[in-house]
């Protein structure tokens, strides 16, 4: 599906949007529910990633295909490895077969798991023969993806002696690890995270618990961008959000102050308002704790004619696409000058953007969604726009509600 986007009305928006649950919290909660069936979950994500996780957890044998879902790939690897009697081949999209899984497979093998690579060493697909994992201490690199750590933590309470992790190297995407620990705390599991060590106590059963998933802050990022790129007075209400979020991407409410966007929290929603026009020439952020916001922020800066230097982006090359390379290519199509290295992106402020440019999305939902808001500033085309369903199937419908003109080509 190819979409042409523009915005023809007055750029003062006043609308309310309901976003479904965080896909990160959803996929963690689903795994915990599979281990402890007396957990109930509210406000599940309606994303493809949430759906493949639910389907995967129902299987005991045969092939489990998780498509593009990184969390499902990593979390289900740990889950099946610890389930005696289950034997599956866990696979995913072509891109998923290029996203490394070795760190997790090695850690699980050290704990007693039986996992074999079906094609290329270190990458999915993998054949998992579920086993009782009989060891409880392992160390693993922490600077590649926090999802390997969360995967181990999620199965930890079901292991006979719990788990002790030693994290080696600089720990990346820390809020996602803390989110996992917070959910374990909510179901009554004893956790301890000090320095580079995490300890989880075993738990045979948990009391009846309802996990209420907060709506997705990464999805909210696109509305922050829309508010920043529209005129002063724009107001968008988003539900259901709370001030004390488990999601690191909630840092957006601070970052977007730089772009004149204010956030107010009421009982279960946020109101984001364009309060002023930013006078900044350039901004600098370390996004190692919020890597999924990098694409949104760089497009906001492009649209506002602000330069940016974004660092802490060392995990971006192994996500749905190599996001650093993809961003450079697509931002430059619009006329920008962009420099990238292994962990950062620098965008030079651009006075006049090109119009009518076709943006490629590289099977990456965030490429499509990050560029969408730019239609407030210039007409553009989004190729393969259906990719948004990975995390936010209603994205284009919701942009239509805000007054975006969307024509399927
Ligand atoms: O644990 C999670 O739910 C996630 C962790 C992050 O990945 P990395 O830890 O690989 O950076 C993030 O980018 C991803 O969208 C979701
Ligand atoms: C990186 C992402 O997802 P995952 O790693 O779970 O595929 C994302 O949603 O931006």
TrEMBL record:
<dbReference type="InterPro" id="IPR001986">
    <property type="entry name" value="Enolpyruvate_Tfrase_dom"/>
</dbReference>
<feature type="binding site">
    <location>
        <position position="323"/>
    </location>
    <ligand>
        <name>phosphoenolpyruvate</name>
    </ligand>
</feature>
<feature type="binding site">
    <location>
        <position position="292"/>
    </location>
    <ligand>
        <name>3-phosphoshikimate</name>
    </ligand>
</feature>
<feature type="binding site">
    <location>
        <position position="147"/>
    </location>
    <ligand>
        <name>phosphoenolpyruvate</name>
    </ligand>
</feature>
<feature type="binding site">
    <location>
        <position position="70"/>
    </location>
    <ligand>
        <name>phosphoenolpyruvate</name>
    </ligand>
</feature>
<dbReference type="InterPro" id="IPR036968">
    <property type="entry name" value="Enolpyruvate_Tfrase_sf"/>
</dbReference>
<dbReference type="GO" id="GO:0003866">
    <property type="term" value="F:3-phosphoshikimate 1-carboxyvinyltransferase activity"/>
</dbReference>
<comment type="subunit">
    <text>Monomer.</text>
</comment>
<feature type="binding site">
    <location>
        <position position="319"/>
    </location>
    <ligand>
        <name>3-phosphoshikimate</name>
    </ligand>
</feature>
<feature type="binding site">
    <location>
        <position position="28"/>
    </location>
    <ligand>
        <name>3-phosphoshikimate</name>
    </ligand>
</feature>
<dbReference type="InterPro" id="IPR013792">
    <property type="entry name" value="RNA3'P_cycl/enolpyr_Trfase_a/b"/>
</dbReference>
<protein>
    <recommendedName>
        <fullName>3-phosphoshikimate 1-carboxyvinyltransferase</fullName>
        <ecNumber>2.5.1.19</ecNumber>
    </recommendedName>
</protein>
<feature type="binding site">
    <location>
        <position position="173"/>
    </location>
    <ligand>
        <name>3-phosphoshikimate</name>
    </ligand>
</feature>
<keyword id="KW-0963">Cytoplasm</keyword>
<comment type="pathway">
    <text>Metabolic intermediate biosynthesis; chorismate biosynthesis; chorismate from D-erythrose 4-phosphate and phosphoenolpyruvate: step 6/7.</text>
</comment>
<feature type="binding site">
    <location>
        <position position="390"/>
    </location>
    <ligand>
        <name>phosphoenolpyruvate</name>
    </ligand>
</feature>
<keyword id="KW-0808">Transferase</keyword>
<comment type="similarity">
    <text>Belongs to the EPSP synthase family.</text>
</comment>
<feature type="binding site">
    <location>
        <position position="366"/>
    </location>
    <ligand>
        <name>phosphoenolpyruvate</name>
    </ligand>
</feature>
<dbReference type="GO" id="GO:0005737">
    <property type="term" value="C:cytoplasm"/>
</dbReference>
<dbReference type="GO" id="GO:0009073">
    <property type="term" value="P:aromatic amino acid family biosynthetic process"/>
</dbReference>
<feature type="binding site">
    <location>
        <position position="147"/>
    </location>
    <ligand>
        <name>3-phosphoshikimate</name>
    </ligand>
</feature>
<feature type="binding site">
    <location>
        <position position="145"/>
    </location>
    <ligand>
        <name>3-phosphoshikimate</name>
    </ligand>
</feature>
<feature type="binding site">
    <location>
        <position position="99"/>
    </location>
    <ligand>
        <name>phosphoenolpyruvate</name>
    </ligand>
</feature>
<keyword id="KW-0028">Amino-acid biosynthesis</keyword>
<keyword id="KW-0057">Aromatic amino acid biosynthesis</keyword>
<dbReference type="InterPro" id="IPR006264">
    <property type="entry name" value="EPSP_synthase"/>
</dbReference>
<feature type="binding site">
    <location>
        <position position="23"/>
    </location>
    <ligand>
        <name>phosphoenolpyruvate</name>
    </ligand>
</feature>
<dbReference type="Pfam" id="PF00275">
    <property type="entry name" value="EPSP_synthase"/>
</dbReference>
<feature type="binding site">
    <location>
        <position position="24"/>
    </location>
    <ligand>
        <name>3-phosphoshikimate</name>
    </ligand>
</feature>
<dbReference type="GO" id="GO:0009423">
    <property type="term" value="P:chorismate biosynthetic process"/>
</dbReference>
<comment type="function">
    <text>Catalyzes the transfer of the enolpyruvyl moiety of phosphoenolpyruvate (PEP) to the 5-hydroxyl of shikimate-3-phosphate (S3P) to produce enolpyruvyl shikimate-3-phosphate and inorganic phosphate.</text>
</comment>
<dbReference type="GO" id="GO:0008652">
    <property type="term" value="P:amino acid biosynthetic process"/>
</dbReference>
<feature type="active site" description="Proton acceptor">
    <location>
        <position position="292"/>
    </location>
</feature>
<feature type="domain" description="Enolpyruvate transferase">
    <location>
        <begin position="64"/>
        <end position="399"/>
    </location>
</feature>
<feature type="binding site">
    <location>
        <position position="23"/>
    </location>
    <ligand>
        <name>3-phosphoshikimate</name>
    </ligand>
</feature>
<feature type="binding site">
    <location>
        <position position="146"/>
    </location>
    <ligand>
        <name>3-phosphoshikimate</name>
    </ligand>
</feature>
């Amino acid at each position: 599906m190819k979409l042409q986007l523009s915005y023809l009305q007055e750029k003062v928006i006043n609308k309310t949007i309901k976003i479904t649950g965080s896909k990160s919290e959803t996929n963690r909660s689903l795994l915990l529910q599979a281990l402890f069936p007396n957990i109930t979950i509210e406000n599940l994500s309606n994303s493809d990633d949430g759906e493949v996780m639910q389907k995967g957890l129902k299987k005991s044998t045969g092939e489990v295909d998780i498509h593009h879902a990184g969390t499902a790939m990593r979390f289900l690897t740990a889950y099946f490895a610890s389930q005696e009697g289950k034997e599956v081949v866990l696979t995913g999209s072509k891109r998923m077969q290029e996203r490394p899984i070795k760190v997790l497979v090695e850690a699980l093998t050290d704990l007693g798991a039986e996992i074999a690579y079906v094609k290329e060493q270190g990458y999915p697909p993998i054949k998992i023969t579920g086993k009782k994992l009989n060891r409880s201490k392992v160390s693993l690199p922490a600077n590649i993806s926090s999802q390997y750590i969360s995967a181990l933590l999620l199965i930890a309470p079901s292991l006979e002696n719990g788990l002790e992790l030693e994290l080696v190297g600089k720990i990346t995407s820390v809020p996602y690890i803390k989110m996992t620990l917070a959910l374990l705390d909510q179901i009554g599991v004893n956790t301890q995270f000090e320095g580079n060590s995490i300890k989880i106590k075993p738990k045979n059963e948990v009391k009846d618990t309802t996990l209420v998933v907060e709506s997705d802050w990464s999805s909210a990022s696109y509305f922050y961008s829309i508010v920043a790129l529209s005129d002063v007075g724009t107001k968008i209400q988003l539900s259901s959000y709370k001030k004390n979020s488990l999601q690191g991407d909630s840092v957006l409410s601070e970052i977007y102050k730089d772009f004149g966007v204010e956030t107010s929290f009421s009982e279960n929603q946020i109101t984001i308002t364009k309060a002023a026009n930013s006078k900044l020439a350039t901004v600098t952020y370390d996004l190692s704790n919020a890597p999924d916001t990098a694409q949104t922020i760089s497009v906001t800066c492009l649209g506002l004619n602000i330069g940016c230097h974004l660092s802490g982006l060392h995990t971006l090359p192994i996500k749905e696409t190599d996001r650093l390379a993809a961003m450079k290519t697509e931002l430059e199509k619009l006329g920008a000058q962009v420099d990238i290295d292994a962990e950062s992106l620098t965008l030079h402020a651009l006075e006049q953007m090109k119009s009518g440019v076709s943006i490629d999305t590289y099977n990456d939902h965030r490429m499509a969604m990050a560029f969408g808001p730019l239609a407030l500033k210039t007409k553009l085309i989004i190729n393969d726009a259906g990719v948004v369903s990975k995390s936010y199937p209603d994205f284009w419908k919701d942009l239509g509600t805000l007054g975006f003109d969307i024509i399927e080509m």
